[in-house]
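Internal tracking record. Fields below are filled automatically when a chain is submitted to the structure queue. Please do not edit lines marked as system-generated. If the sequence contains nonstandard residues, flag them in the REMARKS field before resubmitting.
Queue: standard
Priority: normal
Entity type: single polypeptide chain
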Amino acid sequence: MLASKTGVITSPNYPLNYPRDARCEWTIEVNVHHTITLTLEEIEMENYYSCEMDFVEGYESANSEIDRPAQEEKLLFKECGASDSTQNEWVTTTNTA
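SYSTEM-GENERATED OUTPUT FOLLOWS
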C-alpha cells in the first residue's frame, strides 16, 4: 500500500529482466475528487507487432463513490518496446487507476 502523494511501481527484478510469463496488476486509488497522474519513466521490453506479447497498460476506473459501474474501465495507454513514445504521462479523470 502506498501512503504518500507519489510512488514508483517497477516490474519484478527491475532493473534486470522480468520473469517469463510475468503478469502484474496494481490498483491506485486516491481521495474522491482527486485525479492520478501516471508517468512512464522507462520501459524496455519485447516489441512485438501491436504489443500482443509484452506490454504495459494503464486503465482509469470508475470513481469509487460515483454511480458509474465499478467494473467499467477506460484504457488510457498500452505501450511496448522501448521508451520512444511521444507521450509518457496520462492523467485520469477519476480517482482510481
